Amino acid sequence: MAKSFLALAIILYFCLFQCFAASGSMRKAKRIRARIPCKTLVFYFHDIIYNGHNAGNATAAIVGAPAWGNMTILASQNHFGDLVVFDDPITLDNNLHSTPVGRAQGFYIYDKKEIFTAWLGFSFVFNSTEHKGSINFAGADPLMNKTRDISVIGGTGDFFMTRGIATLMTDAFEGEVYFRLRVEINLYECW
Amino acid sequence: MAKSFLALAIILYFCLFQCFAASGSMRKAKRIRARIPCKTLVFYFHDIIYNGHNAGNATAAIVGAPAWGNMTILASQNHFGDLVVFDDPITLDNNLHSTPVGRAQGFYIYDKKEIFTAWLGFSFVFNSTEHKGSINFAGADPLMNKTRDISVIGGTGDFFMTRGIATLMTDAFEGEVYFRLRVEINLYECW
Amino acid sequence: MAKSFLALAIILYFCLFQCFAASGSMRKAKRIRARIPCKTLVFYFHDIIYNGHNAGNATAAIVGAPAWGNMTILASQNHFGDLVVFDDPITLDNNLHSTPVGRAQGFYIYDKKEIFTAWLGFSFVFNSTEHKGSINFAGADPLMNKTRDISVIGGTGDFFMTRGIATLMTDAFEGEVYFRLRVEINLYECW
C-alpha cells in the first residue's frame, strides 16, 4: 500500500508540474512569443523601369510624379514623389533569365528628397506546382541600407493567413533602369 | 480505503490526461490553427469609373497613368499602370440602387501588361446600426480568375484587430465603366 | 495514513482545478482576447504640402490627381483623387520645430467627393537610441471625425511583428498647406 501511495505521489508531482508549466507558458504566450520562423523562403525579383525606349522588356512604369517630374525619367531630388507600378519576374537565383517561379506585383513610391527611400505595397503571386497562392507585403524601404525589413501582412492559398518579416537586399542595379532585389522571407505565423 | 484509492486513481488519470492534452494542444496552437472562420460576411460593391462624361454618378477616377495613358480612358496594354481611386457604395444584394450599408474606399492599380490584374488597398467603412467600424484589405487581384483571395489585414470598431481572407468575384461589368464585385469575407481572427 | 490521504486529495483538487482552468482559458483564447494594449505610444507628425512656392520646407507633394486636378493645387470636390506622398517629421510634442524622433513616410489618397476622407498607407521609421525599427499602418481616415482609427498592420526592429490600432486626431491645420496629426498607437500584439 505504502509503495502504491508513493507511486501515486510521484505521478501527482509530475502532474502538478505539468499543470503549472502549462498555465505559466500560456500566460507568457500572450506576451513573449518565440521568434523562430515557421517557414523561410529566399527569392530574387527583377525590376526594369520603362524609360521611353524599352517598352519591349520593361516590367515597371512610372505612373505618378510630382510637379517637377514626368513619366519616363525618374524625378530629381532622389525621385521623391515618383510612383512606380511593377509586374516583376521572381526567380530562385540571381539570373534575370532564369525561369520565373512567380510574379512580384504592386507599387513603390519614392518618398524622401534627401536620400533614396521608398514605400512598398506588393504581392508575390505564385501558381506553380511548388507554390500556389500569394504573400502580401507592406512597409518602408530605406534603399541605401544594405538590408531593410518590411512586413508580411497576409497571405492566401499555401500562405493562408501568414505573417512575418521580409528582408530586402539590393543585389544589383544598372543605372536607373534595372535593379534586382534579394528577398528573404521569414514567416512567424503559419496556419 | 482501497475503494477511495481506486476513485482517486481514476480522477488522477483524467487529470493527467487533461494535463497532457492541454500542453499538447498548446504546442500545436503555435503551428496548426483551425481554419474555421469566426465570422463570415457577404457584400457587393459597385465601381463606376469617371470617363469624362459621367461626373454625376462616377464613384471612381483614374489619378495615375503611364506615359502612354491619360485620366479619362483606361490605358492600352490591359490598363497597365492605371491607378484608380474609388468611393464605392456597398450593398447587401447585387442591386446598384439598393440602400448602401457602407462605402468601399481606397485604390487599385492595374499591374500587368499581358492580362488584367490589379493590386488593391482599400477599406470597408461602416457606420450603421448593423456595423460600425472598418475592415482593411490588401492584396493581388488577378481579375480574370473567377474567384480571387486577398488579405484582411486589420479592422477597427466592430472589427477590432480582425484578420482573414476576402474572396472577390466579378459579379457583373458593363464596358470599361461599371463593374460590380461580390465579396465574401471570412474572418479567422476575432477579438 | 488518512491524514496524508486527505492532503493528497486537497493537492489533487487544486491540480484538477488548474487543469480545467488551463484548458478552459485556452479554449477562450481563440475567441475572446483581452483588449489591453501591450504598448502605448503618442506622437505628432507634421505635413507641409508642396504648392509651387514652398519647395524649401515642403514635406509632401501631390503626385497623382484626377482629370480635373494638377500637382500644385489640391483638387476641387474635396480633393477627390489627389495622391500625396510624404516624408514628415515625427515629434514628441505638438511643435513642428522640436527635434524629430523619426519620419512618417508613405502616402494618402483623398477618396470621397462629398467630404474629406483619405486612405492611408505609411510607416513610422525610427532610428534613435529610443526606438529602432518601423511601424506600418493602413486604413481609412475620415478626416472630419474628431478621432479616427486605422490599423497597425506590422512592424520591424523594436516593433517586430506588432499589430494594433492607431487613433489619429487632427491637432492643427493652416489653410491647405500645413496640418499636424496626433497619433496614439495602441499595440495589442507584441512579440
TrEMBL record, chains A, B, C:
Domain of life: Eukaryota
Location within or outside the cell: Secreted, Extracellular space, Apoplast
InterPro entries named among the record's database cross-references: Allene_oxi_cyc_Dirigent, Dirigent
Signal peptide location: 1-21
Keywords, in A-Z order: Apoplast, Secreted, Signal
Main location: secreted
Subunit comment: Homodimer.
Protein's job: Dirigent proteins impart stereoselectivity on the phenoxy radical-coupling reaction, yielding optically active lignans from two molecules of coniferyl alcohol in the biosynthesis of lignans, flavonolignans, and alkaloids and thus plays a central role in plant secondary metabolism.
Stated family: Belongs to the plant dirigent protein family.
Name of the protein in question: Dirigent protein
Protein source organism: Oldenlandia corymbosa var. corymbosa
Record lineage: Eukaryota, Viridiplantae, Streptophyta, Embryophyta, Tracheophyta
